[in-house]
Amino acid sequence: MFILILQTTIYLLFPIILKTITIIMTLSPKNFAWLLVCFLGAGLFAGCKKNTGGYPNGGMAAKGGSNSDSVIIQNYAFSPATVTIKAGTTVTWTNKDGVTHSVTADDVDDGSFDADDSSYYSGDIPNGSSYTHTFSYAGTYTYHCRFHTYMKGSVVVH
After folding, report:
1. Which residues of 29-49 are buried (b: 16+ CB within 10 A; e: fewer)?
2. Domain containing 129: what range?
């Protein structure tokens, strides 16, 4: 079946390809160069799509100087995996996956919040929901998803 489809496609496209080659061969070198530049330019322009990764400021979560920071949970990963902030900053994790995730401090025992920010636990974060936590003290806080323990992240507080 595949060979039949391939043969039919070649049979239908061959006259078009042959006609295109014939037209290109009749162009002067100058016109051919312009045609080539136009095709290459159109190809490059079509490929130049800015991928912001879902972040409003050009692909990176806000850093340091702001009073809030964002982490997107998507494709079974925290993005960015490491966030660097100033003490007193609130971090927001937003779940854009179709499954429930969590933000669980690596040293969390009962899900309670210690005064020194060493433990935090979001509970379940279903699709479309968010969790926020304010980090008041300097240090590096590592976390994971309790459902998918290979998902890891960290918050570095200065």
Report:
1. eeeeeeeeeeeeeeeeeeeee
2. 68-157
